[in-house]
Write a structure and sequence with these properties.
Layout: E1 2-4, E2 10-12, E3 24-26, E4 30-34, E5 38-40, E6 44-46, E7 50-53, E8 60-63, E9 67-69, E10 72-74, E11 79-83, E12 95-101, E13 105-113, E14 124-128, E15 132-142, E16 144-146, E17 152-154, E18 159-162, E19 164-165, E20 178-179, E21 181-182, E22 189-193, E23 201-203, E24 205-210, E25 215-220, E26 223-232, E27 241-248, E28 265-271, E29 273-282, E30 288-291
Parallel strand pairs: 1-3, 2-4, 3-6, 4-7, 5-8, 6-9, 7-10, 8-11, 9-12, 11-13, 12-14, 13-15, 14-16, 15-17, 15-18, 16-21, 17-22, 21-24
Antiparallel strand pairs: 19-20, 22-27, 23-26, 24-25, 25-30, 26-29, 27-28
Length: 294
Amino acid sequence: TVNYSCLCGQNIATVPTGYSYYNLTTSGTDTKTLTSNIEVTGDLYISNGTTLDVSTSNRFISVFRNWTNYGSFTERNGTVRLKGGAGYAQSSANTTSAIYATSEETFYNLVVQKGAVDALNYDTYDSLLVNIRITNLLTLSVGNIKLGSYDLILDVGASTSGGGYMNSNPAISPMVDYSMIETNGTGVIKKLYSAIPSAQIKFPVGTEAFTSLGWRVYIYSPLWLTLNAGTTLNGTAPDPSSVSVKVIDAKEPNLTATTDYITRYWEVSPYLVSTPDYSISYKYTGYLNFNTSL
């Protein structure tokens, strides 16, 4: 562990090419500022009373394990990449990690890139232990974000990229990369609006479950939404108009059919939007079966 613990401002040192930090901690007081892009192959811990600043150069931070923030993070226009995958130093075989902060955590760009997924040995995801806000771009490359009881907020100017199955046929290869936002609890993806009409936004949602045989099942079920008309009743922070989306792995309660239906439905919930008019499309892509002993 490297701990920047001065009771003063400090620069986070550049490490030689080919090297990285394992665990990185800021403590003491004042602001700790990046002087280069950094890679942390363990945990990043921002202590109370300190601020981690990506600098005016908008440095890039890659974190392989947990992001914990008891202080402050100045994200500017920088990028945080949540990495990991088979072959990297982890506390267990799973490439799992968590994002925690004492209050809502804000990222400008957030990238989920957990590494190649071996379906028989690894589960790759990041769990939210706090609401997070994306102000520019959320990129899903490999690995999931599990919302649990927390929300992922897409700010007024934010969008999403990626998501889905990178190899959608497990019969072809045992290596199957996937990436989605699991709405596995009460948490939602919330898109904020300052004006209507608005451009289309993709909600790359999905779910995870286990079969009776112990197989892990991922079902990617994205939804695309365009807010065509309506009135924003509040277009400014801290509580602007929004539309929230989640997918639920169950039969829709109002569905009367007893055969020929899928156990899946999407909840779309406007907030402070008067007489909304949407264009919505959604996709049910089936599932991936992962035989696992985890």
